[in-house]
Description:
- Strand 6, helix 8 (153-165) and strand 7 form a beta-alpha-beta unit.
- The radius of gyration is 19 Å and the shape is globular.
- Helix 1 crosses helix 11 (251-265).
- The chain is an alpha/beta fold.
- It has 2 domains: 8-112 and 239-307, D-Maltodextrin-Binding Protein, domain 2; 117-212, Periplasmic binding protein-like II (D-Maltodextrin-Binding Protein, domain 2, 3-Layer(aba) Sandwich).
- It has 13 helices and 11 strands.
Amino acid sequence: MLALPVFSQPSAAQAWPDKPIRLVVNFPAGGAADTLARGLTPGLTAALKRPVVVDNRPGANGIMGADVVAKSPADGYTFLLTSGGAIAIDPFLYTKMPYDPQRDLTPVASVALVRVFLLVHPSVPARTLAEFVSYLRANPGKLSFGSAGNGSTPHIAAEMFKRAGKLDAVHVPYKGAAPALSDLLSGQVQFMFDPGPGLQHVAAGKLRLLAVASGKRAAQYPDVPTLAEAGLPGVNGDSTFGVYAPAGTPRAVVERMNKEINQAVAANVLQDSVNRMGGAVAPLSIQAFAERQDADRARYGSFIKAAGMTLD
């Protein structure tokens, strides 16, 4: 990470912020990242006494929005809220990226651990994970699954699922989880790994929840098994959503943002949003957040290399 001279830090901290702050979300409105951002900004606006404005910049699996932030001035007025995919997955899928996540972006604060849930359309004649796996095996290549886009966390989770179960299904990528969920609800695709927004439709009986692609069960759904528990080991689509700044942003500003985000994450409004998505709030120190992303990068990188996946 680039560093400014030490003598510039106190003055930067004292003057900052003196204008609105832009929080870039690199996925469309209605998805998990957007939901978290809009739950976070009221608390940040109140704490910083300046408007914190969400700016959706979707495209290219989060790369477009992340690139906007990576190339923005490191003055503390532009931040990125992203899934872990743009940090931990994209570098393994694309040989040419317009930015280097480790060089050009500075970890600021973790917001939430987001899980992905295996949801199926009611037209699928399966009420348990075992029945669904059997149905897929009996109908190779006949079912399709949606995702938030090529290389997104839900896509990688589905590929882990297919590889672990030796299954064949057709991937249909969308520009975000929200449009994928819309087509799942209409039956245009038969299943997807959903990062949480689809759970409300499970409660309404419009979709069926079969499993969670996580290292452990979700507290909100204690009776829903993990895929590993059902005999499909290694299927872990957990993603740490968090906030990043352009490299070189004054350390005092990064530390202040980490403090304020951690406090906003603890607020009931954001906890309620995360609970509805089946995730867990995850306030962390800057160092612990960086270490979490390093672990995610190692886990996803190992799978992507083993599967020979590439998007170039």
